[in-house]
């Protein structure tokens, strides 16, 4: 499995594509500063201004990668026709929070940064 990360940039209050991570100087360079589709526009942020989130290596029913920090709607339990008994939402807190075969069906429905109201 490849290491796949995404970065939440606190000052921008959004996810931006990672250009590079410099652990020596403790900074992350992101693409698209101010212009999401600009491949030439980059900016550095100190590690304190970003949150790195690792992919679990799993995908939901729509093919969306599941990352730490995602809210995932899950279906599990006993099957009755086309329905499954237990339906709930979990917050993926670390890469061990969820594994292959843990649930019958999974769907990413938000994340902790863009949808903090889901924690309540």
Attribute tags:
single chain; about 120 residues; mainly beta; four-stranded antiparallel β-sheet; three-stranded antiparallel β-sheet
In short:
This protein is mainly β and 120 residues long. It has strands at residues 5-9, 14-16, 18-22, 27-31, 42-46, 50-59, 65-67, 70-80, 83-91, 105-111. It has one domain (5-119).
Molecular structure report:
- The chain is mostly beta strands.
- The chain has one domain (5-119).
- It has no helices and ten strands.
- The strands form three sheets. The chain has a four-stranded antiparallel sheet, with no helix packed on it. Strands 3-4-5 form a three-stranded antiparallel sheet, with no helix packed on it. A three-stranded antiparallel sheet has the order 9-8-10, with no helix packed on it.
- A hairpin with a 4-residue loop joins strand 1 (5-9) and strand 2 (14-16).
- The protein is elongated.
- The mean pLDDT is 85.
Mean pLDDT, as a whole number? Answer: 85
Poorly predicted tracts of residues: none
Largest sheet: 4 strands, antiparallel
Helix share, percent:
under 10%
Class computed from helices, strands and strand pairing: mainly beta
Fold blueprint:
Layout: E1 5-9, E2 14-16, E3 18-22, E4 27-31, E5 42-46, E6 50-59, E7 65-67, E8 70-80, E9 83-91, E10 105-111
Antiparallel strand pairs: 1-2, 1-6, 3-4, 4-5, 6-7, 8-9, 8-10
């Amino acid at each position: 499995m490849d290491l796949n990360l995404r970065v939440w940039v606190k000052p921008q209050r959004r996810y931006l594509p990672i250009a590079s991570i410099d652990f020596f100087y403790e900074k992350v360079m992101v693409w698209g500063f101010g212009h999401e589709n600009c491949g030439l526009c980059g900016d550095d942020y100190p590690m304190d201004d970003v949150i790195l989130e690792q992919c679990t290596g799993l995908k939901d029913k729509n093919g969306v990668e599941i990352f730490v920090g995602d809210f995932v709607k899950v279906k599990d339990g006993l099957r009755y026709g086309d329905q499954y008994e237990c339906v709930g939402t979990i917050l993926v807190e670390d890469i061990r929070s969820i594994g292959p075969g843990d649930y019958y069906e999974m769907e990413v429905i938000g994340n902790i940064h863009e949808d903090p109201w889901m924690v309540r």
